[in-house]
Write a structure and sequence with these properties.
37% of the residues lie in helices and 12% in strands. A hairpin with a 2-residue loop joins strand 1 and strand 2. The N terminus is likely disordered. Helix 4 crosses helix 5. With 220 residues, it is an alpha+beta fold. The two termini are 42 Å apart.
């Protein structure tokens, strides 16, 4: 099937730095003398459009890039390319050597605590953030990382602002409503109640508060 390229707007129309304004029945030509950064940005835009073309599909063709400033479009295209080209490997293999954890049952509580935090820091170094852990003990968190997170096969997108957020409340089979019970806002609990037609579980304070590393705010 022929790929659609309709989303690719031309870089230049007639003259790259000229715009026309109609005033008093006359067309007045205005020449914009670009800064070097603007030229580099447009050149990079052309390169990215060529590189992304093999990956285009109908969902991409529906995005209106005319609404995006060129620097923002470039950033978006770079993230798309990084995703398409990223290797699909287990998180454990993101590390050299492969990250492996000793079974929790062979460690005492002090060892668990120490190794858990060392592992959390290692994961964060690969831009993997653990969310909603405060209802879990250190031993539970350690076991979750060893059992579910490290073996998970995920695309490794190598971009400085790309973070993977692992929802640790969704992994709790014993407390299926852990997120509602410990973390949801009043508005989220109310919305859940309206959708499910029943009351949410009683709110409780998470018993194991932690100050985990977090992804930086966008733009910082």
């Amino acid at each position: 099937m022929e790929r659609k390229n309709s989303w690719l707007r031309p870089l230049f129309l007639s003259h790259p730095w000229k715009t026309l304004e109609k005033k008093n029945g006359m067309h007045l030509a205005h020449h914009h003398h670009p800064e070097p950064e603007e030229v580099d940005c447009l050149i990079r835009n052309a390169e990215l459009r060529d590189e992304i073309e093999p990956y285009l599909d109908e969902s991409i063709s529906e995005i209106n890039f005319r609404l995006l400033p060129t620097p923002m479009e470039n950033r978006f295209l770079e993230s798309m390319l990084a995703w398409e080209r990223a290797p699909l490997v287990s998180i454990a293999r993101w590390f050299e050597p492969t990250l492996a954890l000793q079974p929790a049952c062979t460690l005492d509580d002090e060892q668990i605590h120490s190794r858990l935090w060392a592992t959390i820091e290692k994961l964060f170094s690969k831009r993997i953030v653990l969310d909603f852990t405060d209802h879990r003990s250190d031993r539970d968190c350690y076991a979750l990382i060893r059992r579910n997170i490290l073996p998970a096969t995920i695309k490794r997108v190598d971009l400085p602002d790309n973070y993977i957020h692992w929802d640790c409340s969704a992994e709790d089979a014993e407390i299926p409503s852990a997120w509602l019970k410990y973390y949801a806002t009043d508005q989220e609990r109310e919305q859940w109640s309206l959708e499910e037609g029943r009351d949410p579980p009683a709110r409780e304070v998470p018993p194991y508060p932690r100050a985990l590393p977090t992804a930086p705010a966008i733009g910082t």
